[in-house]
Design goal:
The protein is 33% helix and 20% strand. It is α+β, with helices and mostly antiparallel strands and 242 residues long.
């Protein structure tokens, strides 16, 4: 049975907030780079070998972004983001070369600035060390919609978003835990890099000898709440006495 490309809200509604986890000043600098993150003023490599600065969105699956779970790969695959009029939910089945990003900049001075789209037919390669300012992170739904449209653009196959969620939810939960962990640790004057490594080391420990790693258990929706709770307890135990 064929499936259509999906939209973030029902037909007839224009509630785009469900796409975004954070925008503008809401974005935390210590959150790991993730699929669907939007960066401004980022140098990208052109097909001719030159460089130009663009607003871009990361389009690779989160597990393809890192060589060892923490260090980003030397080159990131991104797509250009630029202004585009709002595409109604009922029309998201079309525009197959776009990932609409309505209200990407909710406080923009004009509709042209507020509403954007990722142009999937304008991919680039970016150096992770040269990423500009991150202005948005997507919710899981937004990440899944982006991956759905990216895969469809390149293959004309429509994979339902819930299938993408099966392989995104675990890494997304890991990013959430890492963000919370780093927020707590940098308040104790620990550098972001050290806090990130500390969190990932804890996630890669087994619950018990010979058991599954905490990181692996995040792939199981039934196990996420206990891991989140254990992470909060572990961070509290690491805080220096007040």
């Amino acid at each position: 049975m064929a499936h259509d490309l999906e939209a973030p809200c029902p037909v007839g509604l224009a509630d785009w907030a469900g796409l975004y986890r954070a925008r503008g000043d809401e974005v935390m600098a210590h959150r790991p780079v993730f699929t669907g993150d939007v960066f401004t003023d980022t140098p990208v490599r052109t097909p001719q070998g030159g460089s130009r600065r663009r607003t871009v969105v990361v389009v690779q699956h989160p597990c393809a972004l890192r060589t060892n779970g923490s260090d980003l790969v030397s080159r990131l695959l991104v797509a250009e983001v630029r202004p585009h009029s709002v595409i109604p939910a009922e029309d998201w089945t079309g525009y197959i070369s776009l990932m609409p990003l309505p209200d990407l900049i909710p406080n923009g001075e004009s509709d042209k600035q507020r509403h954007q789209a990722a142009f999937l037919d304008a991919p680039y390669v970016a150096d992770p060390n040269e990423l500009g300012r991150r202005i948005a992170c997507l919710q899981p739904l937004g990440v899944n919609l982006l991956l759905q449209r990216w895969v469809h653009h390149n293959s004309r196959v429509v994979v339902e978003t819930h299938r993408f969620n099966e392989v995104v939810a675990g890494p997304y939960e890991e990013a959430d835990i890492t963000e919370d962990w780093c927020e707590a640790r940098i308040s104790s004057s620990m550098p972001i890099g050290e806090a990130t490594v500390e969190c990932l080391s804890w996630l890669r420990e087994p619950i018990q000898a010979g058991g599954a790693l905490r990181q692996e258990m995040l792939a199981d929706a039934q196990q996420r709440a206990p891991i989140r709770r254990a992470a909060r307890e572990q961070v509290r135990s690491l805080r220096p006495p007040s």
